[in-house]
Amino acid sequence: MAAVATAETEPTLLLERIAAFARQDRVQAGSLIVTVFGDAVLPRGARLWLGSLIELLAPLGINERLVRTAVYRLVQEGWLTTRAHGRRTDYLLTEAGLARVDEAARQIYAARAPSWDLHWRLLVVTEALPTRVRERLRRSLFWQGYGELPGGVYVHPSAELEATLEALGADGLSNWVGALLPLRAQRLPLRGVAPNRTLVQQAWNLSALAQHYAEFVARYAPIEAVLRGQQVPPEAAFLGRTLLIHDWRRLLLRDPQLPAELLPREWPGERARQVCRRLYRLLLAPAERHLDAHLRLADGQVPPPAAWLWQRFEPLDDECSLGVPPGL
Fold this sequence. Notes:
328 residues, alpha+beta, Alpha-Beta Plaits, four-stranded antiparallel β-sheet, three-stranded antiparallel β-sheet, 11 helices, globular, disordered C terminus
């Protein structure tokens, strides 16, 4: 029988993680709100009342002013739109926002890393760009997992090129997409040419990525071990689940999802995925109870979670989305 959370069994490590986040001097509130929409709001219809969002984020040190400023910017960037109901306002994902969240969800909630089709995706810069634009482009593609090769070429083993261009537009680079030539290339098995591993070494700093994965494991594996067999308080479960997925999502944005044969031995990425999977499953049910009590629409309704929510991090027989269900 699971132990009830008491003073002796309270999830201290989880609470310490939440408190540490709340103590930060600077928080990227917009990025955290995107995490909340993708993880918690999407399964409940992809919309919620602004007052609920403010209440949900307050324990993480995100005050009302920061929430209002961040959602305004997300509306300007095309992530969110608004629906008024009397004096209250719902915020909901736009069609473009839904597409980006769904694409991310395929990686975030996968039970295992995706297989590779042996094709490289390339973006070739075909004209000289202003220095400021070039740096913005490099940063945006970095956060989408692209590596950079000499000569203005960006490479990724599995990205959807159309989704990449849409993401660049959402990052304010729409006017410069025309300077990019998207290509899909298959490596030819010819003797004497550079191997795939040479390309990987040039394009990505895998040692830095491995260190980030190791830090993720060091942060969350002890929490997961302590919480086994415990009943986690609903609010702590929601906050912990939000931070877990927020950190995991940001890690995956840096990860090009290279095939196993191109990765160093004892690559920590797979262990990090399994830690995230197990901890998420521990926090899921109590976190949903917190959302039942605190997530409201502007008209006061409580949208229930979709059935497909419980399939996250579970192996599936097909490649259906783990984020947006058909027809949403």
